What we know:
It contains 3 helices and 8 strands, in the order ββββαββααββ.
Amino acid sequence: MAQGGAKILRASSVYRTQPVGHEDQPWFYNQVVEVNSSLNPYDLLRLIKKIEERLGRKPTRAGGPRPIDIDILLAEHWIIQTEGLIIPHPRMQKRNFVLVPLNEISPGTEHPLLKKKIMELWKNSGDSAAVRKLRALETERGKFRRKSTGGRTAQGLG
């Protein structure tokens, strides 16, 4: 187990994604990782918030630009609906920037509330926002430079 009690088991490719909601901002980078953790979802959320803070996250407007945003999408078959934590993530089935990378690593996983597999949710999301898989990432002074697969969107990936 990695420090903090979470070990990465699988990671999707990195995707460059069109902003949803507040479109007057730069595109985002998105990735989904599957972790194994001895932490319960509440303790995992506390660990995530510490990581975000260490990586420079500060309070901003909802949906606005930020250096890092880590969400818990699913936690086995947990269903939690509290003020501070909602699992499964309440909008994941509507967002290609979540569904495309999640489908890459776990297409057969079933959403515990909707009782549909990730692949089915992705195919029926209705989201037209672009999601572009990056072929290679190079770092230059801490910033990403991208080499994308061109204009392919989530609908063109499969």
